[in-house]
Amino acid sequence: MVREVRWYYSAVGDVYTLENWAAFDDEAAWGEYRRALSTLKADDGWESQRVSQDEWWEFLDTRIVTDLPARVGFHRQGR
Fold it and tell me: H or E stretch including 23?
């Protein structure tokens, strides 16, 4: 269901950010992924480990980013 995962690390001054981007074929695949996560949350051991991440990380947000549905005039040289 997850087509690709990328990790990005950035530092601005003393602020460090670790981003995780996951690619899905469509919103339905993303929904399938979210449903699978909800079943994992029923596992007490898994859920305990998941929420313990809040001790080390500040989670900023979750968002869906999609390709533009139409050309907007931006292109690379040579294309």
Answer: strand 15-23
Rounded Cα distance, 52 and 46, in Å: 10
CB distance 18 to 9 below 8 Å: yes
pLDDT in tens, the chain (79 residues): 788 999 999 999 998 898 988 888 888 998 998 899 889 989 999 889 988 888 888 888 888 877 767 777 777 776 5
User: In angstroms, how far apart are the furthest CA atoms of the chain?
Assistant: 54
Task: Give the Cα separation of 20 and 34 in Å (integer).
Answer: 15
How far apart CA 30 and CA 24 sit, in angstroms, is 6
| Structure tokens belonging to residue 67 | 């390709």
